[in-house]
Amino acid sequence: MQRRSFLKKASVGAVAGSAAVAAPVFAQDTPTLNWRLASSFTRGLDTLWGTGELFSRYVREGTNGKFNIRNFPGGEIVPPLQVLDAVQKNTVEMGNSSGYYYHGKDPSLSFDTAVPFGLNVRQMNAWMWEADGMKLMREVYGDYNIINFPLGNTGTQMGGWYRKEIKSVDDLKGLKMRTAGFAGEVLSLLGVVPQQLPAGDIYPALEKGTLDAVEFVGPYDDEKLGFAKVAKFYYYPGWWEGGAQTSLYINKGEWEKLPKSYQSIIEAASRAATVTMTARYDNLNSTALRRLLSQGTQLRPFPRAVMDACWDATQKVYEQTSAKNERFKRILANYMGYRDELVPWFRIAEASYDQYVGAALSRAKK
Amino acid sequence: MQRRSFLKKASVGAVAGSAAVAAPVFAQDTPTLNWRLASSFTRGLDTLWGTGELFSRYVREGTNGKFNIRNFPGGEIVPPLQVLDAVQKNTVEMGNSSGYYYHGKDPSLSFDTAVPFGLNVRQMNAWMWEADGMKLMREVYGDYNIINFPLGNTGTQMGGWYRKEIKSVDDLKGLKMRTAGFAGEVLSLLGVVPQQLPAGDIYPALEKGTLDAVEFVGPYDDEKLGFAKVAKFYYYPGWWEGGAQTSLYINKGEWEKLPKSYQSIIEAASRAATVTMTARYDNLNSTALRRLLSQGTQLRPFPRAVMDACWDATQKVYEQTSAKNERFKRILANYMGYRDELVPWFRIAEASYDQYVGAALSRAKK
């Protein structure tokens, strides 16, 4: 991780990917600031929304209330899927969103959230903080005048809710499904008709029948959004989100004016909020799943043939996108190269441990 | 030290987990403080040692250099296994250590690190921050006048280095093995002669032949400590450390004098450092393991019969310890109850995703 040496001019370039321009800084060490953070998430989704609030609380408390960030839910001052634009234009100083919501602008933004058959939570954290992830993402967000930080990760998501069982690849044909970003492109190769909707609009669409299936996050959020009431079959895993990171956006000009102490507090607070979001999901999902199952939800793994077809379609989409976009190709190689390096190690200590404990507990229950 | 003007009283109870007692605080919002942190770890182990340094850097930067924590490696001002005592007595204001080093004082302290067949990293984070873990650990450390925070987690560790292959439970008999805390008690039921040594003393003992086997952490640290030179067989998983947490200790009296802003910065910095340590290990272990394997290390899973014998012996030790110690019994029930709740959920989305990607990559290599 790169440290910033501030207050001295010309050193702003120490931030990966940022232009090496001298920028004005505040005269005081601890200026009073009132910033606005536009979130893509709504208050009701307390894990996603709450992570942004925890971040702002750490910043406010750490600065004795001098750096005050007010969080606005999606749609209140900025539409949920326009947070990136609002931060780029400095309509708000900060945003909390997901890179893959802006996949249409630039598919490389999806690497900042999750891509099909990509990194799990821990691999993503390692790529961002200890390998090339942050540097590459700063390069991409640089096009949008944004300094980004990770701000949460949901863990591996579920594969979504389906009105009918998915027994074969053919069952995907014609399926109108809510899914964000990259997954839609892959699934459309298999006949799915993907639709991108923010959280709040999904349930009404299912009710109206304009959707046959929906994937959102996992048991805790999905239960709140009521999907179980309109779709019975709950599939896993969400192969398009092995570990979905959410992000903090800061307008670059505003970031460069911050004193170094505030920048450091932001960095620490964003990491703290990131790991806390994962802990919250891990704490809440298991009980939510048990409630759903007790109320009739049918849990299903995707059939192996469906997984394999999705894997193959994914490779095609990666090839097509790489052929059109040189930077995407370069980041993909870095990201997938990292996955290929880390995954074999994760299969040794971690997976064998988890597998043994899981099996032992299953035996103990019988 | 300029830490002696207590002019106003205020509650410091707003930071989660701290006692809600009125306590004297510094007259200034941002007093200048120079604290010492005694670590159990040596500089050479840059992941363990470096996490403490990252923490201190976040605190120093976030306070504009006013709260300055100087980190001392194990043995420099405090012996590595006496950090808890030094913080308790306020010889140093802060420590960075592992609860299970003090298993002999109180076996409940081991829950703050790892216990056999216990929680993995993410389950541990969730237990500490989102369930009852922090509250219970604060109760235990309260006996030692200490306020604790998580400060790192290694992930699932390896099962250690052995001069001879472990083909059956009988091969454990008479084995002189370095292992910390609880694992030693379990392994001794199977005939192992456990020895507790700090990191720096292990290699000399192996060289002298006073040890037959050693477990420390995982490939990255173990490679540095040179174990591969004296023991060929590298076993997995380290069932006694499914996710070993390291800890920050703060003398309670000193903690209560801190202004709320410093307390909040400590909390955020400790979470940030915790997730960063895991990312560092995840980033470094895979390449270290490849190097070890290319130099002749033989990787072996523990045979199923050995794992089962260890599982059974673990339950016996838990029963014996519970019979003697009411608080241990109560914390064990909470901790293992949490494991039993979370593990089935982790087997669904996370494990099935990891398993699919791992298998797909193996196939792709052939």
UniProtKB/TrEMBL annotation, chains A, B:
InterPro entries: DctP_fam, SBP_TakP-like, TakP/all3028, TAT_signal, TRAP_DctP_sf. Keywords: Metal-binding, Signal. PROSITE patterns: TAT. Residues 1-27 form the signal peptide. One of its GO terms (cellular component) is tripartite ATP-independent periplasmic transporter complex. GO terms for molecular function: metal ion binding; organic acid binding. GO terms for biological process: organic acid transport; transmembrane transport. Transmembrane segments: none annotated. Na(+) binds at residue 216. Substrate binds at residues 157, 178, 215, 241. It comes from the Bacteria. This is TRAP transporter substrate-binding protein. It comes from Zwartia hollandica.
